[in-house]
Write a structure and sequence with these properties.
Blueprint: E1 10-13, E2 22-27, E3 30-33, E4 39-44, E5 55-65, E6 73-79, E7 82-90, E8 93-97, E9 102-105, E10 110-114, E11 119-124, E12 132-141, E13 152-156, E14 161-164, E15 167-173, E16 175-176, E17 179-180, E18 189-196, E19 201-205, E20 211-218, E21 221-223, E22 226-228, E23 233-237, E24 242-247, E25 251-258, E26 264-268, E27 271-273, H1 276-288
Antiparallel strand pairs: 1-26, 2-23, 3-4, 4-5, 5-12, 6-11, 7-10, 7-12, 8-9, 8-11, 10-13, 14-15, 15-18, 16-17, 18-25, 19-24, 20-23, 20-25, 21-22, 21-24, 26-27
Length: 320
Amino acid sequence: MSESDQTAPVVRGGRERVPGGPVRELLAPRETALGGSTVVRRLLPNLGRRMVGAWCFVDHYGPDDIADEPGMQVPPHPHIGLQTVSWLHEGEVLHRDSLGSLQTVRPYELGLMTSGRAISHSEESPREHARLLHGAQLWVALPDAHRHTAPAFEHHADLPEVTTAGLHGTVILGSLDGARSPGTVHTPLVGVDLTLREGGSARLPLEPDFEYAVLTMSGLTEVDGVRLEPGSMLYLGSGRRELPLRALADGSLLLLGGEPFEEKLVMWWNFVGRTGEEIARARTDWMSGDRFGAVHGYDGPPVPAPQLPVTPLKARGRLG
């Protein structure tokens, strides 16, 4: 998915601004249109917080009735320095990329693309698609040691699960309570889809060295005593060994966490880099048809890159 409306460059990362203990910081979403009839609620980057571990971008969309709509239509666009995570509760997304990958991602299946040094891809609802579309698109920043790796795409239809009284979890990335996802990760992190039934409660084990946030996908839930409605995200800080959860109605959550990301990085449009010069070079390469390859089969032209800002990049840290 493309961060096509965000063209103001910012620097993110640096663990010195991570709370040393638990917090309850509610992050308000920002709505933006993205491809076809899809409107997303952007939770990261946020005016109050820009990263959670290596997670640097979170969009939540739906549930949308697309029975008479084209649904998601995101034309070919480029990426460097990150991984994209496609996660669905309802509907299907057809992924194409410049490696030649062609994969339909369905609910509770992991679509994981590692851009490394350069890749381009498109995402669309298939021509014949389900009535509803509901999911999340997330980015993971790659650390310096891995950000120039060869691009790759993974699809995992069978993911490990954890179950306790009142709670069911699917481990998307990383591990939880002994269950480990097959998805490739390059920093210590975790992503888990959690389902709770009305009236159910649980205490979820956490890593105290990780910082965490929880996104409510559906229903009405209470996380560490804070009531969350769909599309809202609660930042939890670090220093926690467990997290109390309660369902006020049938609900589902995304738990995102990881070791605070040490490196400062520049995010602009669909690129994650370290300097303005690197970002400018990636833009030039995309516009000239170099480096990123071609996505074949998508019915439409690729997305042109926006103009770079005239002001130099300025470090703003992980908060701002």
